[in-house]
Every structure is written in C-alpha cells, then in structure tokens.
Design brief:
alpha+beta; globular; 11 helices; single chain; four-stranded antiparallel sheet
C-alpha cells in the first residue's frame, strides 16, 4: 500500500469541497489499495458525517453510512433486502461496511484486481483477457467486447427490483437517481461504471412503499455456503391473490454486468396461476440476449433454475 494522507471533514459541505477519495467502512477500498489497483493520495474519512438513520412507514429511507448489519436486523426492512445483506459477507464485514459503500463497490473480476494484467476498467484500451481467458465467474448479460465483469453487490439486486433511488449531494444542491439508472453497462467505456459525478456523495437510499414486498426473498447460488460471491442470485417478490399472481418483481445478480431487472419475466408472471408451470414459463425468458463465454455457459440454465427456486419459496410462504 502506498502512503496517503487522511482527513476527516466535519460536514457534508466540507467533504464535497475537499479533494480526495471518500472512506467509510473501507471493506472494498482498502483491499484495492493493498493491491495497488487504487492509489489515492488523500482519503476523506466521512464516518462522522450525519448520514445515518433508518426510517420506515411511507417507504424506506436509509442513511448512506448505516452499516449493513444494522439494516439487515431492522424490522421494517423488506425480506429480500435483509436476506441479500445477510448473504453478502461475514458478520465482521457487515458490521463495518456501509450501505453507500456497498452500492459503490468495484467488481471482483480477477483481471481487474491484478495490476499485472490488462483490464479495460482499470486501464482503458488495454483489453479484456476474460473474454477468451478464465471466465467461469463472469457475466452473460449486459456484456460487451470490452468487459464481461459481473457486478459484485448482492443488495443492489434487491434494491433495483424494488425501484430504489439514491440521493446524491453535490455542489449544485444534489439530485435523486433511480438505482437502476445509476449503474452503467460497460459498452465501449467499461471504466465508467456509474453516474456519480465528480464532487458528488451518496447521502441516502430511498425505497418506495410496496406492502406486498413483505412476501419477498433473495436466493444466492455460490460455490460454497459462506462468504462467497454469487454464481447466480435472484431477488423476487410476489403479490399472490386467490392463487394467482397480481404483480411481481424479479431481478438477478452474479450473471450480469449490472444488477439486472427482468421486466419480461415479471410481465409473464402477472395474471398467471402461482404454480411451478407458470414460474418455469416465465423464467424461460430470463436469459434472452445472453452471451455465454467459453467457461460460463452453465449460467444460462442456472439463471432460470434460480428464479424458479426463489418463486417457489414465495409461493410456499
């Protein structure tokens, strides 16, 4: 790790005015600094800023510095959010990691994290070895010839399914952005991963009220049961009335370059009987547009099965 300066701004305004890289829990940033993937010369410790609190009622509001463990344990948080947080990391990491930092975490692609290798995200124009190399963990949806890295956050998948928004503070007074619009598929510019502008800071997360999301879940398939990133995951919520599906929300992770909402699957579920045949027919649409690589073709059937598993869990709830 290279030398750096550390300061702690006292207010959000001071943080926005100061040059440097924001540090909250540090569970991603410090790792990347140790690997020389990121080499900031000045860190801004924002942990004392007034960006905490969890409010429920007419929707859900979460301060950006709230820790993952506290959010997961809060009684007013939708099950798919709580479960995504609980499955995302060890207890120690959940106690440290902030929700804002989780949403901003970088990909776990091994080529990105190895500075001896080319990587278009880290060094634009240098190439993407994963396209033809070791790519078992990589994406099949939302990819491009420039990048096939998966998005790492579990809870972002659940939040995209729930139409969450984030509030960004900036010199112009701030703005609110839908989380689904915040993340950017790689295209020809994989180094541009999101819509955070220079000098902006995530201050809070907002989830609209959706009462039937009390029937929701997050299913994560991985190589080992604890502390592992997803091969495939599914966040799902069902509104079941008289044995039929009135509404549905479905998003997936571990298979795409950004948290991947599935509107075609949701539409296929609406009005259908809440049973296995309906779930399988809807899930069959999930991989439309997929581009499997040499080592991850198994993710296409796995994606469909993971969605069916999540929906069956909700039907039986």
């Amino acid at each position: 790790m290279r030398p750096f300066e550390l300061t702690a701004p006292a207010t959000v305004e001071d943080a926005l005015a100061a040059p440097g890289t924001f540090l909250a829990g540090g569970t991603t940033l410090v790792d990347l600094m140790k690997l020389d993937v990121l080499t900031p010369g000045h860190l801004l410790d924002i942990n004392e800023l007034p960006l905490r609190g969890i409010e429920t009622g007419d929707g859900l509001r979460i301060g950006a510095l709230e820790r993952m463990s506290d959010i997961a344990a809060h009684p007013g948080v939708y099950p798919m959010i709580s479960r995504a947080l609980l499955l995302s990391a060890s207890q120690q990491l959940r106690n440290m990691a902030s929700i804002g930092g989780n949403l901003m975490q970088r990909t776990r692609c091994g080529y990105f994290r190895d500075v001896a290798m080319p990587c278009n995200r880290r060094n634009p124009g240098s190439g993407c070895p994963a396209v033809t190399g070791a790519n078992r963990m990589h994406a099949v949806l939302g990819t491009s010839d420039s990048c096939v890295a998966t998005h790492a956050s579990d809870v972002a998948v659940a939040l995209v399914a729930l139409d969450a928004e984030i509030r960004l503070a900036g010199a112009d007074g701030g703005r609110t952005v839908k989380l689904a619009d915040f993340y950017r598929p790689p295209g020809d510019s994989p180094e541009v991963e999101h819509d955070l502008r220079p000098g902006e800071l995530i201050t809070e997360l907002r989830v609209p009220r959706l009462d039937w999301a009390a029937r929701s879940t997050y299913v994560k398939v991985r190589d080992r049961q604890s502390y592992e990133f997803a091969l495939c995951s599914a966040a799902a919520a069902l509104d079941i009335r008289d044995g039929h599906i009135a509404d549905a929300r479905v998003a997936v992770g571990g298979v795409a370059t950004v948290p991947w909402r599935l509107p075609a699957v949701e539409e296929a579920l609406r009005g259908a009987p809440a049973r296995l045949a309906s779930f399988e027919a809807a899930a069959a649409l999930a991989a439309d547009g997929a581009r499997p690589l040499s080592g991850n073709g198994f993710k296409v059937p796995l994606l469909k099965r993971t969605i069916v598993r999540a929906l069956l869990e909700l039907e039986r709830a």
